[in-house]
Specification:
Elements (H helix, E strand, L loop, with lengths): L1 H14 L6 E5 L2 E5 L3 H12 L16 E4 L2 E6 L2 E6 L18 H18 L3 H15 L6 H44 L1 E7 L5 E7 L1
Antiparallel strand pairs: 1-2, 3-4, 4-5, 6-7
Helix pairs in contact: 3-4, 3-5
C-alpha cells in the first residue's frame, strides 16, 4: 500500500512537471539529481507535504560520493563511477564454511558475492579491490584460500569467454541473415539488404536491379 501511495504521488508530480530529470526510488530509498542544494531542499518539502505520515530525509554527497542501496556512486571529474558500499555498522556476518549446511551453499554464496562485486563495480580497479575485501571477509570464516582464488579466477575467465562467445554467436547470426537475404533477392529479383537506423533496429529495403 505504501508503494501504491508513492506511485500515485509520483505520477501527480510528473504531471505537474515537478519531478527531477533523474529520479529513482526503491521502496523508501530515492536517488535524485538536482541542480542545487536549494532545489533539493524544496523538492524534499514537496515530497513530504501531501500527507503527514510522509517524513523523507535528505543526504547530500560527501567528497563527491553518495551511497544508494549497497552501491557507492562517485563523481570523478565528468565521469560517474560505482563500487560496492557497506555501511559503517556492517559486520560482514555470512555463512561460516564449517556450518552444518551442504557445501554447495557455501560455494554459491561465494559466487554470489563475486557476481555482486562485478555488477556494482564500474571499473576493473573497483572490482579487484572488492575481491580483496571479500578475501578478508571469507578467510576468517574458514573458507579455503584456494577455493576463494579459484572461484574469482573462474568467474573472470567465464566473463571473458562469455564476451567472446557472444561475438561468435552474433557473427553466425549475421552470416545466416545475409544468406537468407541473398536467397530472397535471387527468388524475387530484387536486392534486399539490412539498413541500420538511428535506433539500431534492422529494417529491410528493396531496390530494383
Amino acid at each position: 500500500m505504501a508503494n501504491v501511495f508513492m506511485c500515485h504521488l509520483e505520477d501527480k508530480l510528473t504531471r505537474d512537471g515537478i519531478m527531477p530529470a533523474l529520479y529513482r526510488r526503491y521502496v523508501d530509498d530515492t536517488l535524485a539529481r538536482m541542480p542545487s542544494t536549494e532545489a533539493a531542499t524544496d523538492f524534499l518539502t514537496t515530497l513530504n507535504s501531501p500527507h503527514p505520515s510522509l517524513s523523507f530525509t535528505i543526504e547530500f554527497p560527501d567528497n563527491n560520493k553518495i551511497p544508494f542501496i549497497g552501491i557507492e556512486i562517485i563523481k570523478n571529474g565528468t565521469r560517474i563511477e560505482t563500487q560496492v558500499y557497506r555501511k559503517p555498522t556492517n559486520t560482514s556476518l555470512l555463512l561460516h564454511f564449517q556450518s552444518h549446511t551442504d557445501k554447495r551453499y557455501n560455494k554459491c554464496l561465494l559466487k554470489t558475492m563475486i557476481h555482486r562485486a562485478h555488477s556494482l563495480s564500474s571499473t576493473t580497479e573497483a572490482f579487484n579491490e572488492e575481491c580483496n575485501r571479500l578475501r578478508g571477509i571469507f578467510i576468517p570464516l574458514q573458507y579455503p584460500v584456494a577455493l576463494i582464488n579459484s572461484t574469482i579466477n573462474n568467474f573472470v575467465r567465464d566473463i571473458s569467454l562469455g564476451a567472446d562467445v557472444k561475438r561468435v554467436k552474433d557473427q553466425i547470426s549475421a552470416n545466416a541473415v545475409r544468406r537468407q537475404m541473398k536467397d530472397l533477392s535471387h527468388k524475387i529479383g530484387t536486392t534486399v539488404e539490412p539498413i541500420s537506423s538511428a535506433r539500431n533496429w534492422n529494417k529491410i529495403s528493396s531496390q530494383k536491379k
